[in-house]
Amino acid sequence: MDPYQLAFDIALNTDRSLFVTGKAGTGKTTFLHRLKEASRKQMAVVAPTGVAAINAGGTTIHSFFQLPFTPFIPTPEGRKNLVAKSRMRSSRRRVLQELELLVIDEISMVRADLLDAMDATLRHFRYRNNELFGGVQVIFIGDMFQLAPVAKEEEWRLLSRYYQSPYFFHSQAVIQDPPFYIEFEKIYRQTNSSFIRVLNEIRDNSLTDESFRLLEKRYNPLFTPPEEEDYIILTTHNNKADRINAEELDKLEGETYTFEAGIGGDYPERNYPTEPVLELKVGARVMFLRNDTETPRRFYNGKIGVVDAIDDDRIVVRCKEDEYIEVERATWENIGYTVDTETKQVEENVLGKFSQYPLRLAWAITIHKSQGLTFDKAVIDAGMAFAPGQVYVALSRCRSLEGIVLLSKIRPESISTDYQVIDHEKNRQPITAIEQQLADARGVYRLRLLESVFDFTGIARQCKRMLSEMDAIRASFNEETLTHLRDIHGQLQAVDEVAVKFRVQLRSIFHQEPIKEEYLQERLHAAHDFFSEKIDRLIKTLRQSPAKTDSRNHAAEYNEAIQDIFSDLALKKHMLGNMKSDASIEAYFEERNGFVLPSFHVNAYTKSSTARADLSHPGLYRLLVEERDRICEPRDLPIYIVAGSKTLYEMAEYLPQNEKELLQISGFGAVKVEKYGQAFLSIIRSYCEERDLPSRLLEKKASKRKSKEKKQKGDSQRISLELHRAGKNIEEIAEERNLAVSTIGTHLAKYVEKGELDVTDFVSRDRLQLAEEKLRARSPDESMYYALQFDFSNTEIMMILAYHRNRSLSIT
C-alpha cells in the first residue's frame, strides 16, 4: 500500500498513534492539510512554536494545554504539581474531554518532558488516568533529522535522570506505547539524483568522499550575489540576517514605504508571521511568505522577487523579466478551540487576526526560519555555528545543488547526526508489517467506539465530583440539593454496573472470527431498549432539579455541571437510537457529527433564598437575608463567606441571643462572629424582643443528640446484612432501602472482609477462579482493580477485593 494512503487509513479508521516522517520536501505538510479536511474526528492541531502553529493552522502546545515553560518531572509528585498549577478553564477542559485526534506538527522540536506533560494533562482532565494521552489518538508529524529540541544545560541536568535524550521518542508516553512509524519517501522538492543522494547521506550521517567533493565544489567564500540573481543568504543568527537586510535596503535610493500590520483580537507578538511594520523600497529583494490561493498559482512560500512598484496600497513584485505579481494583503489567524454546546463538536475559533503583505526582505534569513521553505538559489553563511540538523535543513531548502553557494566549508563534525536519532529510525516496522496489523486495529477501534456508547463511568465520576464540590458549599444551597445529586449518582452507578457487563459481551462478540454481525445487531437492539429507558429516567430527574442558591457563582457552577451531565446522556441516547441498525465506524461518525443537543434548562439561582416551608420565623429569615446581602454586595463577597442559606435557616429557627450561642450555629466560627456577629444578633434580638421569644439553642443540642442516638441504634451496614441473611439480593436490598446498589455492595463487602459472609454468596466459584487467574497474570505495577475491571462488574470486584483483604488478615 502507498505510504500516504496507509497513513490516512490509520488516522481515519483506527485510534492507533502514528509518527509520519520523511525527508524534507516529501509532502508531510500536505498530508496534514488533507487530514484536516478529511477527518470526521474531534481534532486539534498543535505545534511547539507560534510560527509553526500558524503555518499548521493550529495553536501552540503551551497555549492549548495551559502548560508552564519550566521542565516537567515525570513522577507522581511532578504530575500532581502540574495539575495543581494548571489554570484550565471549564471551556478548555471541555475541549480536552471531547478531543479524539491530536496532531503535533514539527515533532522534532518537541522535548520529551513536554510530551509527557501533555500526556499527564489529558489523562487528568479526561478522567482516564490509565490510558495513554487519556485515550486520545495522537499523530506526530516531523523529521527527526531537522531541528532538534532545545534543552539548556541546567534543564538537562535535571531531566537527564528521567530521560535518555530530549527527543520525543524517549518520552515515557512513547516508550510505553510506540506509534506506527511511516516514512514518506517520494521527494517533490528536488529532482536531481546526485543532490538527493548528498542530502540522504547527510541525513543518515554517511557522507561519502564523492558527495563531500560535490559539496566542496559549492564553496566560494568570496561570492557576492549578482543583483540580477535571486539569491538568498541563509545564516544562523537573527541579528546577522536583520543587519544584512537593513544594510542592503539602505543602499537603495528612493523613498521608503512603510506598511503597518492590522492586528485584531488575541494575537501574541511572539507568533507574528512577519514584521508588524514592513519597510520597502523599489528594488528591494523580497520573499513571499504564503502560497498563492489563486489558480494558476503565481507564487509560493519562499519564492523570491524584486519590488518593481509601490504606492500607498499597492505593491508589484517582479520575479522574472516578464512575471509581475500584484501583491495583496494576506491574513493569518490565531486559532483556538471550543466545544459547540448544541452539537458537542470541537470547533476551531479565530481568536485574533494578523493582516499584512505576505513579504519579507530577502537578502538574508535564518536557517531556523527557513524550515518549510523552498529556494531556487541560496548562499549559505553558517560559519562554525552549525548545530546538529542545521546543515540538512539549510541544504534541503534548495531545489538543486547548482543553486547553492557555501561561504564557509562544511566540516565533517558539522553534519554529524545524533546517533540516537539514527538508532530510533532503525526501529521502524516495514510497511508490510503495518498493513498486516491494520485490519486488527480497525476492529479494535470499532469495538472501542461501540464500548464508548455504553460507558457511563466517566459521567458517574463527573457526578461524584460535583456531589463532592456541592457538599463542600452545602451551606449555600437548600437541603434538597444534595439529596437530588445523590439520587442522580445512584442511578448512574446502577446503569454503569449493567453497562460494564454489556461491554464484556461486546468484547466476547468481537473476539470471534468472523464477527457474527446479525447477533451483534440483536444485542445492540436489546441494549438500546434497556439503556434508553434508564437514560430517560435520568434525564427526567435532571430536569426536576430542586437546587436553589442565592449565590450567582455557585448557581453557575451547578447549572454548568448539570448541563454537562445532561449533554453526555443526551448524546448517548442519540447514538443508541441510531447504532442499533448500523454499528460501523462510518455510521458512528455520521450519527455523532449529526447530533444536536435537545433543549434543557436548569437554573439554581434565586435572588434571595426562599424560606423553607417548615421554618418557624420566615419573616426573620428574610430580614437576615437582607442583612447578609447588605454586607456582601458592596464588597463583592460570595454569600457563603458571610452566611450561607443553612446558616440563615438555623439563626432564624434557633434564635441565638449572644456570641457564645452564635458559635453553635452551623457555618459560624470565631472569626465570622467577630466580623459579622453583632450585625445579625441585633436583628435577632429586636425580632425576639418584639415577640417575647427566647433562644431555642437547647432544642438544637437535643436534636443533635437524638440524631446521634438514632444513628447508633440503626447501624446501616447491619441492616443491609440482616436483609441479605433474610434472602434478599443486593438489588432488592437497594430498592427496599432506597439506596444505590453500590452502597449496599460496600456494606456487604465489609462483612466479606470480616469473614462473616462467604464471597461465593456474590461471586460464583468459576468466576472466583477466573479472578485468581487474572490477578496472578497481572504485572507488578498493575493494580488489582485494573486487572479485573474489564471482566467483572463493580460489585464482583468489590467482593473479590474484600475476600483478598480477609485472606491477608488471616495470614498475618
Automatic annotation (TrEMBL):
Coiled-coil parts of chain: none
Matching Pfam families: HRDC (PF00570), HTH_40 (PF14493), PIF1 (PF05970)
Domain HRDC residues, every copy: 614-694
UniProt GO BP: DNA repair; telomere maintenance
CDD domains to which the protein is assigned, alphabetical: SF1_C_RecD
SMART domains referenced in this protein's UniProt entry, alphabetically: AAA, HRDC
UniProt GO molecular function: DNA helicase activity; hydrolase activity; nucleic acid binding; nucleotide binding
SUPFAM superfamilies named among the record's database cross-references: HRDC-like, P-loop containing nucleoside triphosphate hydrolases
InterPro entries xrefs: AAA+_ATPase, DNA_helicase_pif1-like_DEAD, Helicase_HTH, HRDC-like_sf, HRDC_dom, HRDC_dom_sf, P-loop_NTPase, PIF1_helicase
EC numbers on record: 3.6.4.12
Superkingdom per UniProt: Bacteria
Keywords from the named record: ATP-binding, Helicase, Hydrolase, Nucleotide-binding
Full protein name: ATP-dependent DNA helicase pif1
Organism: Petrimonas mucosa
Lineage: Bacteria, Pseudomonadati, Bacteroidota, Bacteroidia, Bacteroidales
